[in-house]
Write a structure and sequence with these properties.
globular, 159 residues, binds threonine, homodimer, four-stranded antiparallel sheet
Chain lengths: 159, 159
Protein backbone atom coordinates (compact mmCIF):
# COMPACT_ATOMS: atom_id res chain seq x y z
CA UNK A 1 0.00 0.00 0.00
CA UNK A 2 2.86 2.31 0.83
CA UNK A 3 4.64 3.82 -2.12
CA UNK A 4 8.06 3.76 -0.46
CA UNK A 5 10.58 1.50 -2.17
CA UNK A 6 13.81 2.20 -0.33
CA UNK A 7 15.95 4.48 1.78
CA UNK A 8 19.06 6.13 0.37
CA UNK A 9 21.95 7.59 2.36
CA UNK A 10 24.45 10.08 1.02
CA UNK A 11 27.28 10.86 3.43
CA UNK A 12 29.38 12.59 0.78
CA UNK A 13 27.63 15.90 1.07
CA UNK A 14 28.14 19.33 2.55
CA UNK A 15 25.50 22.04 2.86
CA UNK A 16 25.99 25.70 1.99
CA UNK A 17 23.66 28.61 2.58
CA UNK A 18 23.73 32.04 0.97
CA UNK A 19 21.57 33.97 3.37
CA UNK A 20 19.39 37.00 2.93
CA UNK A 21 19.91 37.53 -0.78
CA UNK A 22 17.60 39.96 -2.56
CA UNK A 23 14.50 38.13 -3.73
CA UNK A 24 14.41 39.41 -7.28
CA UNK A 25 15.04 37.87 -10.72
CA UNK A 26 18.61 36.97 -11.57
CA UNK A 27 19.86 36.12 -8.11
CA UNK A 28 19.49 32.35 -8.28
CA UNK A 29 20.96 32.47 -11.78
CA UNK A 30 24.00 34.40 -10.57
CA UNK A 31 24.78 32.02 -7.72
CA UNK A 32 24.40 28.81 -9.64
CA UNK A 33 26.03 30.04 -12.83
CA UNK A 34 29.09 30.94 -10.76
CA UNK A 35 29.17 27.42 -9.32
CA UNK A 36 28.61 25.81 -12.72
CA UNK A 37 31.45 27.86 -14.18
CA UNK A 38 33.75 26.18 -11.66
CA UNK A 39 32.28 22.80 -12.66
CA UNK A 40 31.00 22.27 -9.12
CA UNK A 41 28.24 19.66 -9.00
CA UNK A 42 25.25 20.82 -7.02
CA UNK A 43 22.81 18.21 -5.69
CA UNK A 44 19.96 19.69 -3.65
CA UNK A 45 18.89 23.28 -4.17
CA UNK A 46 16.22 24.62 -1.84
CA UNK A 47 14.56 27.98 -1.49
CA UNK A 48 11.76 28.26 1.03
CA UNK A 49 9.45 31.18 1.81
CA UNK A 50 11.12 34.01 3.73
CA UNK A 51 9.52 36.03 6.51
CA UNK A 52 10.82 39.18 4.85
CA UNK A 53 8.98 39.78 1.61
CA UNK A 54 12.11 40.93 -0.19
CA UNK A 55 14.79 38.48 0.87
CA UNK A 56 15.52 34.79 0.38
CA UNK A 57 17.81 32.17 1.94
CA UNK A 58 19.28 29.94 -0.74
CA UNK A 59 20.67 26.61 0.34
CA UNK A 60 22.31 23.87 -1.63
CA UNK A 61 24.48 20.81 -1.21
CA UNK A 62 27.72 19.84 -2.90
CA UNK A 63 30.01 16.84 -2.66
CA UNK A 64 32.25 17.16 0.37
CA UNK A 65 35.55 17.46 -1.54
CA UNK A 66 34.11 20.51 -3.32
CA UNK A 67 33.11 22.35 -0.14
CA UNK A 68 36.09 24.68 0.11
CA UNK A 69 35.87 25.80 -3.49
CA UNK A 70 32.08 26.09 -3.40
CA UNK A 71 32.27 28.31 -0.32
CA UNK A 72 34.81 30.56 -2.05
CA UNK A 73 32.51 30.92 -5.04
CA UNK A 74 29.47 31.50 -2.83
CA UNK A 75 31.27 34.17 -0.79
CA UNK A 76 32.36 36.00 -3.91
CA UNK A 77 28.80 36.09 -5.27
CA UNK A 78 27.33 36.87 -1.86
CA UNK A 79 29.57 39.92 -1.61
CA UNK A 80 28.41 41.19 -4.98
CA UNK A 81 24.79 40.60 -3.98
CA UNK A 82 25.32 42.18 -0.57
CA UNK A 83 23.90 39.01 0.95
CA UNK A 84 24.14 38.83 4.69
CA UNK A 85 26.19 35.71 5.07
CA UNK A 86 27.48 32.43 3.69
CA UNK A 87 27.28 29.43 6.01
CA UNK A 88 28.66 25.97 5.37
CA UNK A 89 28.74 22.64 7.15
CA UNK A 90 30.08 19.26 6.09
CA UNK A 91 29.00 17.47 9.26
CA UNK A 92 25.85 16.36 7.46
CA UNK A 93 24.30 13.47 5.59
CA UNK A 94 21.33 13.30 3.25
CA UNK A 95 18.78 10.58 3.92
CA UNK A 96 16.07 10.03 1.31
CA UNK A 97 12.86 8.10 1.05
CA UNK A 98 12.64 6.76 -2.47
CA UNK A 99 9.34 5.64 -3.91
CA UNK A 100 6.65 6.40 -6.43
CA UNK A 101 3.59 8.58 -6.26
CA UNK A 102 4.42 9.71 -2.75
CA UNK A 103 2.69 13.01 -3.35
CA UNK A 104 -0.68 11.32 -3.32
CA UNK A 105 0.11 9.75 0.02
CA UNK A 106 -0.26 12.63 2.50
CA UNK A 107 1.13 10.71 5.43
CA UNK A 108 4.41 9.56 3.91
CA UNK A 109 6.50 12.68 4.52
CA UNK A 110 4.87 13.14 7.93
CA UNK A 111 5.81 9.57 8.85
CA UNK A 112 9.41 10.11 7.75
CA UNK A 113 9.65 13.30 9.84
CA UNK A 114 7.94 11.62 12.79
CA UNK A 115 10.32 8.64 12.65
CA UNK A 116 13.36 10.92 12.69
CA UNK A 117 11.96 13.02 15.53
CA UNK A 118 11.36 9.91 17.64
CA UNK A 119 15.15 9.49 17.76
CA UNK A 120 15.61 13.24 18.27
CA UNK A 121 17.25 13.55 14.84
CA UNK A 122 16.96 17.17 13.78
CA UNK A 123 15.99 17.89 10.17
CA UNK A 124 18.16 20.67 8.72
CA UNK A 125 16.95 20.85 5.11
CA UNK A 126 14.07 19.29 3.20
CA UNK A 127 13.34 18.87 -0.50
CA UNK A 128 10.69 16.64 -2.01
CA UNK A 129 9.43 15.29 -5.31
CA UNK A 130 6.92 12.57 -6.15
CA UNK A 131 9.64 9.96 -6.02
CA UNK A 132 11.95 11.28 -3.35
CA UNK A 133 11.74 12.93 0.06
CA UNK A 134 15.21 14.10 1.14
CA UNK A 135 16.23 15.33 4.57
CA UNK A 136 19.63 16.67 5.57
CA UNK A 137 20.59 15.58 9.08
CA UNK A 138 23.73 15.56 11.25
CA UNK A 139 26.23 13.18 9.71
CA UNK A 140 26.46 10.92 12.74
CA UNK A 141 22.70 10.41 12.56
CA UNK A 142 22.68 9.20 8.95
CA UNK A 143 23.06 5.46 9.46
CA UNK A 144 20.67 5.47 12.42
CA UNK A 145 18.15 7.39 10.29
CA UNK A 146 18.33 4.74 7.55
CA UNK A 147 17.87 1.99 10.13
CA UNK A 148 14.79 3.47 11.78
CA UNK A 149 13.23 4.45 8.46
CA UNK A 150 13.71 0.90 7.11
CA UNK A 151 11.87 -0.33 10.18
CA UNK A 152 9.13 2.31 10.13
CA UNK A 153 8.33 1.65 6.47
CA UNK A 154 8.55 -2.12 6.76
CA UNK A 155 11.54 -2.32 4.44
CA UNK A 156 13.58 -4.40 6.83
CA UNK A 157 11.31 -7.37 6.24
CA UNK A 158 12.82 -7.94 2.82
CA UNK A 159 16.11 -9.76 3.14
CA UNK B 1 23.98 15.90 -24.40
CA UNK B 2 21.57 17.67 -22.14
CA UNK B 3 19.72 15.51 -19.69
CA UNK B 4 16.50 17.53 -19.86
CA UNK B 5 13.55 15.62 -21.27
CA UNK B 6 10.64 18.01 -20.80
CA UNK B 7 9.05 20.90 -19.01
CA UNK B 8 6.05 20.41 -16.72
CA UNK B 9 3.60 23.08 -15.60
CA UNK B 10 1.31 22.78 -12.60
CA UNK B 11 -1.13 25.67 -12.23
CA UNK B 12 -3.24 23.85 -9.64
CA UNK B 13 -1.05 24.79 -6.73
CA UNK B 14 -0.95 27.16 -3.80
CA UNK B 15 2.04 27.83 -1.57
CA UNK B 16 1.95 28.03 2.21
CA UNK B 17 4.69 29.05 4.61
CA UNK B 18 4.91 28.43 8.34
CA UNK B 19 7.55 30.96 9.30
CA UNK B 20 10.04 31.04 12.11
CA UNK B 21 9.24 27.71 13.69
CA UNK B 22 11.65 26.34 16.29
CA UNK B 23 14.36 24.34 14.54
CA UNK B 24 14.25 21.25 16.74
CA UNK B 25 13.08 17.64 16.29
CA UNK B 26 9.38 17.08 16.02
CA UNK B 27 8.38 20.32 14.36
CA UNK B 28 8.22 19.11 10.77
CA UNK B 29 6.45 15.99 12.01
CA UNK B 30 3.82 18.06 13.82
CA UNK B 31 3.02 20.26 10.84
CA UNK B 32 2.78 17.52 8.26
CA UNK B 33 1.02 15.01 10.49
CA UNK B 34 -1.67 17.64 11.08
CA UNK B 35 -2.07 18.09 7.32
CA UNK B 36 -2.07 14.35 6.69
CA UNK B 37 -4.75 13.86 9.33
CA UNK B 38 -6.99 16.13 7.25
CA UNK B 39 -6.08 14.09 4.15
CA UNK B 40 -4.54 17.17 2.54
CA UNK B 41 -2.15 16.22 -0.27
CA UNK B 42 1.14 18.03 -0.01
CA UNK B 43 3.34 18.29 -3.11
CA UNK B 44 6.54 20.25 -2.55
CA UNK B 45 8.03 20.57 0.92
CA UNK B 46 11.07 22.80 1.29
CA UNK B 47 13.18 23.80 4.23
CA UNK B 48 16.23 25.90 3.52
CA UNK B 49 18.97 27.13 5.86
CA UNK B 50 17.89 29.93 8.20
CA UNK B 51 20.00 32.90 9.20
CA UNK B 52 18.98 32.32 12.81
CA UNK B 53 20.53 29.13 14.09
CA UNK B 54 17.43 28.14 16.00
CA UNK B 55 14.57 28.86 13.62
CA UNK B 56 13.30 27.52 10.31
CA UNK B 57 10.86 28.60 7.61
CA UNK B 58 8.86 25.64 6.36
CA UNK B 59 7.15 25.99 3.01
CA UNK B 60 4.98 23.60 1.11
CA UNK B 61 2.49 23.49 -1.71
CA UNK B 62 -1.01 22.04 -1.84
CA UNK B 63 -3.65 21.77 -4.56
CA UNK B 64 -5.50 25.05 -4.87
CA UNK B 65 -8.92 23.74 -3.73
CA UNK B 66 -7.26 22.66 -0.45
CA UNK B 67 -5.73 26.06 0.32
CA UNK B 68 -8.32 27.28 2.77
CA UNK B 69 -8.32 24.11 4.83
CA UNK B 70 -4.53 23.78 4.70
CA UNK B 71 -4.12 27.33 5.98
CA UNK B 72 -6.51 26.61 8.86
CA UNK B 73 -4.47 23.54 9.82
CA UNK B 74 -1.19 25.41 9.45
CA UNK B 75 -2.41 28.30 11.60
CA UNK B 76 -3.54 25.94 14.34
CA UNK B 77 -0.16 24.20 14.44
CA UNK B 78 1.72 27.48 14.09
CA UNK B 79 -0.07 28.82 17.16
CA UNK B 80 0.92 25.76 19.20
CA UNK B 81 4.51 26.09 17.99
CA UNK B 82 4.54 29.84 18.61
CA UNK B 83 5.66 30.26 15.01
CA UNK B 84 5.78 33.83 13.83
CA UNK B 85 3.37 33.63 10.94
CA UNK B 86 1.54 31.61 8.33
CA UNK B 87 1.56 33.01 4.80
CA UNK B 88 -0.30 31.68 1.81
CA UNK B 89 -0.64 32.52 -1.86
CA UNK B 90 -2.51 30.78 -4.66
CA UNK B 91 -1.37 33.18 -7.36
CA UNK B 92 1.42 30.77 -8.23
CA UNK B 93 2.38 28.02 -10.64
CA UNK B 94 5.05 25.35 -10.45
CA UNK B 95 7.27 24.93 -13.47
CA UNK B 96 9.60 21.94 -13.55
CA UNK B 97 12.49 20.76 -15.65
CA UNK B 98 12.18 17.01 -15.96
CA UNK B 99 15.13 14.89 -16.97
CA UNK B 100 17.64 12.33 -15.82
CA UNK B 101 20.95 12.67 -14.06
CA UNK B 102 20.64 16.42 -13.90
CA UNK B 103 22.74 16.47 -10.76
CA UNK B 104 25.85 15.62 -12.72
CA UNK B 105 25.20 18.53 -15.06
CA UNK B 106 26.18 21.59 -13.02
CA UNK B 107 24.84 24.08 -15.52
CA UNK B 108 21.30 22.75 -15.88
CA UNK B 109 19.72 24.43 -12.87
CA UNK B 110 21.72 27.60 -13.54
CA UNK B 111 20.41 27.65 -17.11
CA UNK B 112 16.83 27.24 -15.92
CA UNK B 113 17.22 30.09 -13.44
CA UNK B 114 18.98 32.25 -16.02
CA UNK B 115 16.23 31.66 -18.60
CA UNK B 116 13.54 32.70 -16.14
CA UNK B 117 15.48 35.77 -15.07
CA UNK B 118 15.88 36.88 -18.68
CA UNK B 119 12.10 37.38 -18.71
CA UNK B 120 12.18 38.92 -15.24
CA UNK B 121 10.26 35.95 -13.83
CA UNK B 122 10.92 35.86 -10.10
CA UNK B 123 11.61 32.47 -8.50
CA UNK B 124 9.69 32.10 -5.24
CA UNK B 125 10.54 28.54 -4.17
CA UNK B 126 12.98 25.92 -5.43
CA UNK B 127 13.28 22.18 -4.87
CA UNK B 128 15.44 19.79 -6.84
CA UNK B 129 16.19 16.12 -7.34
CA UNK B 130 18.23 14.26 -9.96
CA UNK B 131 15.22 14.07 -12.22
CA UNK B 132 13.37 17.26 -11.46
CA UNK B 133 14.14 20.94 -10.86
CA UNK B 134 10.98 22.72 -9.70
CA UNK B 135 10.48 26.46 -9.37
CA UNK B 136 7.41 28.23 -8.03
CA UNK B 137 6.66 31.42 -9.96
CA UNK B 138 3.78 33.89 -10.27
CA UNK B 139 0.84 32.12 -11.86
CA UNK B 140 0.62 34.46 -14.84
CA UNK B 141 4.24 33.64 -15.65
CA UNK B 142 3.73 29.88 -15.81
CA UNK B 143 2.94 29.42 -19.49
CA UNK B 144 5.59 31.94 -20.54
CA UNK B 145 8.10 30.09 -18.37
CA UNK B 146 7.32 26.81 -20.12
CA UNK B 147 7.67 28.48 -23.50
CA UNK B 148 11.06 30.04 -22.86
CA UNK B 149 12.39 26.92 -21.16
CA UNK B 150 11.32 24.77 -24.12
CA UNK B 151 13.28 27.12 -26.35
CA UNK B 152 16.32 27.39 -24.06
CA UNK B 153 16.65 23.63 -23.76
CA UNK B 154 15.96 22.94 -27.42
CA UNK B 155 12.75 21.06 -26.67
CA UNK B 156 10.69 23.08 -29.11
CA UNK B 157 12.47 21.42 -32.02
CA UNK B 158 10.55 18.20 -31.44
CA UNK B 159 7.09 18.46 -32.99
C1 LIG C 1 16.00 34.31 -4.54
C2 LIG C 1 16.03 34.02 -6.00
O1 LIG C 1 15.46 32.77 -6.28
C3 LIG C 1 15.37 35.11 -6.82
N1 LIG C 1 13.96 35.22 -6.52
C4 LIG C 1 15.56 34.80 -8.30
O2 LIG C 1 14.61 34.73 -9.02
O3 LIG C 1 16.64 34.58 -8.77
C1 LIG D 1 12.29 22.76 11.25
C2 LIG D 1 12.07 21.31 11.38
O1 LIG D 1 12.46 20.61 10.22
C3 LIG D 1 12.79 20.70 12.59
N1 LIG D 1 14.22 20.85 12.46
C4 LIG D 1 12.42 19.23 12.72
O2 LIG D 1 13.28 18.40 12.76
O3 LIG D 1 11.28 18.86 12.73
Amino acid sequence: KEAVRGIALDENIAKIGVLKVPDKPGIAAKIFTALANEKINVDMIVQSIHSSGSLADMAFSVERPDLKQAVEVAKKVAKELKAENVVADDDVAKVSLVGIGMVSQPGTAAKMFETLSNEKINIQMIATSEIKISCVVKREAGKKAVQILHKAFGLDKVS
